[in-house]
Amino acid sequence: MSAQVVTVTSGKGGVGKTTAVASIGVALAAEGQKVVCIDADIGLRNLDVVMGLENRIVYDLVDAIEGRCRLKQAMIRDKRLPELYLIPAAQTRDKSAVSPTDMTRLCDELRAECDWILVDSPAGIERGFRNAIAPADRVIVITNPEVSAVRDADRVVGLLEAEGKGAPSLIINRLNPRMIKHYDMLSAEDVLDLLAIRLIGIVPEDESVIIATNRGSPISFESKSKAGQAFRNIARRLKGEEVPFMDLENHGGLLDRLTRLTGRR
Amino acid sequence: MSEKSSLVQIKGLRDGLLVSLSDAGWDVLRAALIAQIDERQAFFQGARLALDVGKQVLRVDELVDLRDKLSERGVSLWAVISASSTTEKTAQLLGLATRISKPRPQEVNHPVSELDEGAALFLHRTLRSGTRIEYPGNVVVVGDVNPGAEIVAGGSILVWGRLRGVVHAGAQGNPSSVVCALELAPAQLRIADEVAVTPYQNNISQPEIAYIKGGRLLAEPWQSG
Description:
The complex is a heterodimer of chains A (265) and B (225). Chain A has helices at 17-30, 47-50, 61-65, 71-74, 100-111, 127-133, 147-162, 177-181, 188-195, 208-215, 226-238, 252-262; strands spanning 4-9, 35-39, 76-77, 84-87, 116-120, 138-143, 169-175, 198-204. Chain A has an eight-stranded mixed β-sheet with strand order 3-4-2-5-1-6-7-8, with helices on both faces. Chain A is α/β, with parallel strands linked by helices and 265 residues long. Chain A is globular. Chain B has 225 residues and is of the alpha/beta class. Chain B has two domains: 2-93, Transcription Regulator spoIIAA; 112-221, 3 Solenoid (Pectate Lyase C-like), CATH 2.160.20. In chain B, 23% of the residues lie in helices and 35% in strands. Chain B is built from six helices and 15 strands. In chain B, strands 5-7-9-11-14-15 form a six-stranded mixed β-sheet, with no helix packed on it. A five-stranded mixed β-sheet of chain B has the order 6-8-10-12-13. In chain B, strand 14 and strand 15 (216-221) form a beta hairpin. The longest helix of chain B has 14 residues, at 26-39. Chains A and B meet through helix 7 of A and helix 5 of B.
């Protein structure tokens, strides 16, 4: 097996990168894929918390890169899914501790051992972002249907194209159909109009996501949650399956528009 | 010493320095440039630098790193001139100018007041947020100008798409410049010294032209003739 390295980034903070990495990781592992999640947010780590593994950290990403431990020692196995691992970030250092070359080297070492490497990027467009995208075969930009988030995402897409990483895929997170109907929120169409990249998923606003985060149990474990279902669908699309987009309202109108949108470049 | 100085040529411009780099590996050139600056700190302190990198293909991280290193030494990099379109695009994405206007001798006494003709900078792509285009002539964009993108032109600006960023036409003081767009909704529009902000969404989705008339900025739907 040779892993695909997928980095999730956004520009803006707080739009759901860490939640997405954890949830997609769980969804892939639940389908039998071997997944390593890496938290590249050095100094402000939280992927470990969202995955419920913060009490099991002995070694972290910086320890592995600086040679204080073997790579395997920094990999924490998930409690429920034996094929899911986490390499946590260091909390007592900052982004200057790691270089893009370090990240590429580390991921190359892991490639033969797993199917997927998911990298959680920090917010921003500086060193931490460049570290996170360096090893990526594929980048997912995640955004909220909200003007300032989309502005930042546009900047990030431009930078990714200039860095030769090609066009990223898009996840629109925290979509609220009721607000869109009242013109209080951008629609998926508005977002795609501006960003003009390929949509890989739309995740609806769901209160149970915060509950899941606080409990350290990613939302993809919840079979009844629409957000969980959205992330499970994203995982399947990553694998190359054609999965129709969920009907987030109770009538077909939105579904038709979304089906048309998936064909957009 | 002498090899390094032949890699890096320094010339004075009206408003700063122009550094031209010859053909060599980027790491070698970068080291030579930094070494030159370190050797003559007092000379370079506070300088505005335009850098001609010739055919070098530079990535975002390389340009960012260079700009940071120069900034640490009190040198502000404001333009990167290159024969490579990749490097040009990268520079534009980082807000750097890619042309420096060198006034030709005959223009010094007769400042160009009308830019009716002449070659325009032609960009066939959408300008994403954070991209800055600075050009002494006319600028044509086939694509959108997204919010957060900027165009500063000495002449007119034509956007065959949605204009939602910031544009400044006639930036060198030419009030006869115009701004046209298929959808004119700029965050801020300037022609010469006049500034205007787009009024709240009126959902006009037809081509418009903005110009100065009677000292005021006006915009109206495009009518031929």
